[in-house]
Amino acid sequence: MPRFFFHIRDGATLIEDPDGSELPDLAAAREEAAQGARFLLAEKLKAGEVLDGQRFEITSAEGVVLALLLFKDLVKLR
């Protein structure tokens, strides 16, 4: 199985995922990132922090960016 890395970009800051996760495909990696982002968003909301600006950069083991997931895109408001 391929290994995907879930780096968090917050403005100019990059928090690198040193271990990554083995997942069957990019679709599974996107779902893993969405679940992680929802957890992190909930923690920020509880702490009264701003929810805008962060994203996951999903990369391959070679460091190629395969997908971007903006945290704010996961917030559904009516």
Give keywords.
single chain, alpha+beta, 5 strands
Query: Which structural class should the secondary elements be placed in?
Result: alpha+beta
How many domains in all?
Answer: 1
* Gross morphology: globular
**What's the total number of strands?**
5
Q: How much strand?
A: 25-35%
Report the span from N to C terminus.
39 Å
Q: Return Rg in Å.
A: 13 Å
Characterization of the model:
The chain has 78 residues and is α+β, with helices and mostly antiparallel strands. It is built from one helix and five strands. The chain has one helix at 26-46; strands at 3-10, 13-15, 21-22, 54-59, 65-70. Strands 1, 2, 3, 4 and 5 form a five-stranded antiparallel beta sheet that branches. The longest helix has 21 residues, at 26-46. 14% of the residues are buried. The model has no long low-confidence stretch (mean pLDDT 93).
What topology does this entry show?
Layout: E1 3-10, E2 13-15, E3 21-22, H1 26-46, E4 54-59, E5 65-70
Antiparallel strand pairs: 1-2, 1-3, 1-4, 4-5
Pfam families: DUF6894
Protein name: DUF6894 domain-containing protein
Domain DUF6894: 3-67
